[in-house]
# Entry
Amino acid sequence: MTDSPFHGVIPPVVIPLTEKKQLDLEAFERSINRMIDAGVDGLFFLGSSGEVAFLTDAQRYHVLQEAVAIVNHRVPVLAGIIDMETLRVVDQAKRAKGYGVDALVATAPFYALGGPKETERHFRAIREHTDLPLFAYDLPVCVHTKLDPTMLVRLGKDGVLQGVKDSSGDDVSFRWLVLENEDAGHPLQLLTGHEVCVDGAYLAGADGSVPGLANLDPYSYVEQWKAAQAGDWNRVKELQDHLARLMFLTRVVKATVGFGAGVGAFKTALWQMGVFNTNQMREPVQALEGEDVAAIVEVIKKAGLMDADAPIRK
Amino acid sequence: MTDSPFHGVIPPVVIPLTEKKQLDLEAFERSINRMIDAGVDGLFFLGSSGEVAFLTDAQRYHVLQEAVAIVNHRVPVLAGIIDMETLRVVDQAKRAKGYGVDALVATAPFYALGGPKETERHFRAIREHTDLPLFAYDLPVCVHTKLDPTMLVRLGKDGVLQGVKDSSGDDVSFRWLVLENEDAGHPLQLLTGHEVCVDGAYLAGADGSVPGLANLDPYSYVEQWKAAQAGDWNRVKELQDHLARLMFLTRVVKATVGFGAGVGAFKTALWQMGVFNTNQMREPVQALEGEDVAAIVEVIKKAGLMDADAPIRK
Amino acid sequence: MTDSPFHGVIPPVVIPLTEKKQLDLEAFERSINRMIDAGVDGLFFLGSSGEVAFLTDAQRYHVLQEAVAIVNHRVPVLAGIIDMETLRVVDQAKRAKGYGVDALVATAPFYALGGPKETERHFRAIREHTDLPLFAYDLPVCVHTKLDPTMLVRLGKDGVLQGVKDSSGDDVSFRWLVLENEDAGHPLQLLTGHEVCVDGAYLAGADGSVPGLANLDPYSYVEQWKAAQAGDWNRVKELQDHLARLMFLTRVVKATVGFGAGVGAFKTALWQMGVFNTNQMREPVQALEGEDVAAIVEVIKKAGLMDADAPIRK
Amino acid sequence: MTDSPFHGVIPPVVIPLTEKKQLDLEAFERSINRMIDAGVDGLFFLGSSGEVAFLTDAQRYHVLQEAVAIVNHRVPVLAGIIDMETLRVVDQAKRAKGYGVDALVATAPFYALGGPKETERHFRAIREHTDLPLFAYDLPVCVHTKLDPTMLVRLGKDGVLQGVKDSSGDDVSFRWLVLENEDAGHPLQLLTGHEVCVDGAYLAGADGSVPGLANLDPYSYVEQWKAAQAGDWNRVKELQDHLARLMFLTRVVKATVGFGAGVGAFKTALWQMGVFNTNQMREPVQALEGEDVAAIVEVIKKAGLMDADAPIRK
# Structure
């Protein structure tokens, strides 16, 4: 372990909306406080689960301004600066800094095609324009580039990057990253974006996790991290099995696929659990309804996040 | 043929930069005038070749403001409103309209994962916020979604879309699109994004083309369109073979891949031909150098776009 | 044009089965004769449409033995020697030669991962073991490797390959292949595997086509080839539009996808047209039924391949 | 744990060749005995690492005949029956059974495109023709289909499958599989094909592993399995880190990619360690040479599998 403040459970914060599809400040504050009270070690705003792709710049910075005020230094705040290519990302970096965040999270360039030279130059160029801690966000399912572990560690040693959020799903590559980072003196904080294989990532040597599912059950993820720190691997695995079964809620959705099924199921569960006031989504995604809601409720009741005899909210 | 003003050769305009990587207004005007004088039927700004992904919003609208002023109604101006998801695209649409463009060009949503429902809703949501003609931009290599011909024609019949720029490289799908569009009464203007198979697309029934290579040789593309209109297919093919050989300039680059090799080669050729003053690129892409420049010069000399004994510009 | 015997329309022969899923010799002979009588320039057996992946070796060579006997030198016979890696393909090559075929058709290696070195060595190794004309079969949708045009022409100049069947759907790459082949003195016969963009491929310079749809309508493909030879491009396009509309029969299938929908629709049409006695498929694919059959019949009636008032065969 | 004989460490056996690229029986026996003496729980022949794609049928059954004789019932023998589609796989199944193997391992169909219906029917059709235990081999990198966990468990409950070898690299899907299999009463033995994330798979509940790297270091994998059974997760992870660093030998190869780099590096290491007499490969793959051999030797020396001062074999 290093003395970096970025470790442990750092949920990517899901955004509650009102019926009119505006930021629901009341639910936002409730959900943030619920996670901090549960003991999370940080919060990540404007990630993929945090609707970053769906928000105008004005909406993004409204979220960030409110988030920083609500968190009020209780835990570190990380902010996604997600945009297509370097100059647009640098713009986001400058603006996010102005809102008082503690670290920035950037993907490789996307949309235009490039190669490893462009990816590496991209992160170096961002560093030239900001002094905040910078995490690389490895998310090939959205970005269509897999970040190379050797390049990441090189950028760590050069002071360009301070960490990685690995949502690649490529656990072999993550293992290379852990070992190369260790050999280099641990310049990078390595956070797994897994939700259902966090136990294996901790065993492999991850410094923390960024699970969207922690919006629903922050308690279990916090307990799991503590168990991992204590070397109680049977408990780590037991909690993971519980969380994996809870994650089934994303597998029962039939109306759509992708973000609408995944984050849509999270919002629906948080609504049914009383944390959110609605399960509204941003355009062009539609809120889940009917049978999908019922199926999600069944999963969260089975996992003990909702009373077995509680009625379905409409 | 319909009476739509959007047909024939509509080049996606490549952006010249100064040594300091700023918009080179002098070269921009020269290049635009050169294409209009050659007889192109329209100009498309802020497309993929037009660096849309690489520009901040401020830079995008600087390009658009200057473009509209230089073109000055001589030909229709189409503007890319390229961003990740619906609300961001709507923002771009509103802003682009304010600059006086004649049509908008939007891709499917990207970054967040979605399905066909979200794609169709996306275009309908854009239409709810603008009254300008709207083209769907089918570019799976950047957007990672292939637009379904049947959906496109349905959106055409419903007045949501007025045309398609097909850069999918999927000529079978383009054929379905042409036939279904014909059966529906031709609601869509169908433009191919091909550079080296424009002849086949015209034979199949395309209403025009959007070839980046027309920045280099607008004359041949204009002549090719006229030959196609006249049914002189041997001439159409002959010009295509010339243009395909010219396109080899993107195949000789060794330093990088993707945008840096493709648009990088276009800029390098335009610089060597004296249309541009440099071959500068936006971050994180680097300008081509040395052997790559020499190889590109060899191709354009062979194609007759540069005197055989002209020296290489440094 | 070269003096190679491999040019013009060379259908990949679809295999008729009895109710018990055995080779239906009567229908096989009828279908082959129908295509030869229509004027096709060759026949390709054991291609992807010809069930090569679905047949045991014993079944493959039963097909080939009967095919060679039925064709009886009226047109050249090409045989697919499709298997995973080099030694298995060489085995197939030796065996196919024993049955008296006129040319062999091989893909790149598949299943095990390799790179361009292995692909090139593969074709050279096959050549070391056979003296028959050899075609490379470019079919990335099945083989997951795209053959590089420059490599193909190099293998042509070296006498390893005598032709290419391009089913890549990548018409830009096909154009590079045509131009590089021309520059090298035309060592390769270039056949397009397109069904609905054959007109563009002919205009680009293809030496022929291998359309599965020619099993249904060999007449139109033969007339199209003749029109192309005569430079009557309007007729070429007109026939293509007819054939493209006929190809809609593969787009109306709902029960399954892939081979079962594509070749399944071909077999269903041939059955309904009275050329085949059933529409049986090999395991694990199931024959199309019910609504899918009705939808296919509607397409072929509209295209004039079946009388408008003919009943659906059961 | 069930009472199935298929659990623990079951290496996929790498095949040694003579200089003339024939099966090297002496080295084959030495390598097999070395693994059995180290305590492995089974051996898997004719898997992807076992050159199944590269061997003619005659060569495949030569390998199997010798393997069964050498193993001589000391551990269970699993045999790959890898071929393109159902009837070819059934042929392989019948033949493999004749050689006295204890279980069969089959992939989904490949080459021809299909959907989930065809995949499920495929496994059911194989079961109709054999009574041996049958494992599904999930290897999307070669087969280009990902097996669905819910389908696999359904086939387990129906007695079609007795186990799964999961080489998908998709650890989330593997977790679903473990949980659904548990809920169904553990009909399937679940073996991970991981080499560098076996610790996480054991923690998740895998019944064993099939690591190619165990050809080099069977001792560590056997010890790791025992440590996992004993719940000594720190030791499991420690051994995994050692094995992961050993696996770097596949990352230092520069001459090629894929099978030639991966299995090529394994063979080169086994040759340098004195287990194999050469590092020969089957066509079209070439044996590694020069700098690649030196780099591999460096890795295995660092991992303690070769004396630090031992010379490189030529």
User: Anything to note?
Assistant: The CA atoms of residues 36 and 75 of chain C lie 8 Å apart. The first strand of chain C starts at residue 8 and ends at 9.
